[in-house]
Amino acid sequence: MGLHLHQRGKLDQAESHYRAVLTAQPTHFDAMHLLGLLQFQQGRHIEALDLMSAALRLKPNAPAALSNLGLVFAALGRLEEALASFDKALAINPRNAEAHNNRGNLLLHLARFEEALACFNKALAIKPHDFEALHNRGKVLLALERAASAQASFEEALALRRDNPEAHYNHGNALLGLKRPAQALASFDKALSLDPDFVEALNGRGNALLGLKRPEEALASFDTALAVKPDYAEALSNRGNALADLKRSEEALANFDRALAIKPNFAEVFYNRGKTLLGLDRWEEALASFDRALAIKPHFAEAFFSRGNTLLGLDRLEEALASFDKAIAIRPNYTEAFYNRGVLLMSLKRPAEALATFDK
């Protein structure tokens, strides 16, 4: 009865039922575990921890309860304990798809992307049509900059649940990564039709409009996002990009500075700020911005590329060459970096190396 109510989302009635069972039978494992899960779902994490811990004292090797305890530990920021709980659940039942998925989400949060991907793949090997695992696999593939594979995973997820705004949003991000802004715009619009105040989708929509060279419309989308969430650093940064495209450079720089006041270690904002300063021929300031971006995100290929262009403007040619080389080392198919490297080698009177670079 309580589980049926719980599954139908009638949480208050389910809670009353679980508590009634526990009043009659204080050591009823299922009621204790499921009441703990309900408390977790309502954001009462300490109560959830107490109940699930008590349930596991009754049945220490219950894999579902161990997996749910891992979720509670993760919500409380006790990440190593969360990982240990998922690992114990999987040691008992290696075919627990939900535990593999929960473990993958934690590893995704910890930026251990390859390990997270392995977890989602294990979940899908057990349960191939699981929406959550397909969606989460797409998210980790996006983080690994494997946009085509991410897009395929999101499409599989959306085939199961067309009404999920987050999946449409993430599908849009994958399409942006594939440089397909018109299709990305359609995905963001679908997400917003399902959730009009979805600020991340409003931000994504603005990015798609920037990709379509429609900066005025992009600016309006970023403004709508900021009306909902005024301290949204990503939207402020992207609003700066729209203003830069509209040649309103000083306003753009002010937006980047506002974003950095909210999120001081935001590498992409330093990068966007540097690009705007580069467009104004403010070489030294641009270089300082790219250096800040790279101090935060050392494998930022675009920042190395733009840093190389800045050093060219400062006539620091060997340093520029080293920056292009670093960009290419991070992204071996970086066509623009190869081209600029070749042009630079020609100016250094190293034609054979230049020709080899252009051939790549």
Shape: elongated
Oligomer: single chain
CA(first)-CA(last) distance: 67 Å
Helix content: over 70%
Describe the largest sheet: none
Provide the β-strand percentage band. under 5%
SSE series: HHHHHHHHHHHHHHHHHHHHHH
Class computed from helices, strands and strand pairing: mainly alpha
Counted by DSSP, the helix tally is 22
Rg is 25 Å
Give me some keywords for this one:
single chain; 360 residues; mainly alpha
Structure in words:
The chain is mostly helical and 360 residues long. 79% of the residues lie in helices and 0% in strands. It has 22 helices and no strands. It has helices at residues 2-7, 11-24, 29-41, 45-58, 63-75, 79-92, 97-109, 113-126, 131-143, 147-160, 165-177, 181-194, 199-211, 215-228, 233-245, 249-262, 267-279, 283-296, 301-313, 317-330, 335-347, 351-359. α15 packs antiparallel against α16 (249-262). The longest helix has 14 residues, at 11-24. The chain is elongated, with a radius of gyration of 25 Å. The chain starts with a helix and ends with a helix. The model has no long low-confidence stretch (mean pLDDT 94).
Condensed summary:
The protein has 22 helices and no strands. It has about 350 residues and is mostly helical.
Write the layout of secondary structure elements.
Blueprint lengths: L1 H6 L3 H14 L4 H13 L3 H14 L4 H13 L3 H14 L4 H13 L3 H14 L4 H13 L3 H14 L4 H13 L3 H14 L4 H13 L3 H14 L4 H13 L3 H14 L4 H13 L3 H14 L4 H13 L3 H14 L4 H13 L3 H9 L1
Helix pairs in contact: 2-3, 3-4, 4-5, 5-6, 5-7, 6-7, 7-8, 7-9, 8-9, 9-10, 9-11, 10-11, 11-12, 11-13, 12-13, 13-14, 13-15, 14-15, 15-16, 15-17, 16-17, 17-18, 17-19, 18-19, 19-20, 20-21, 21-22
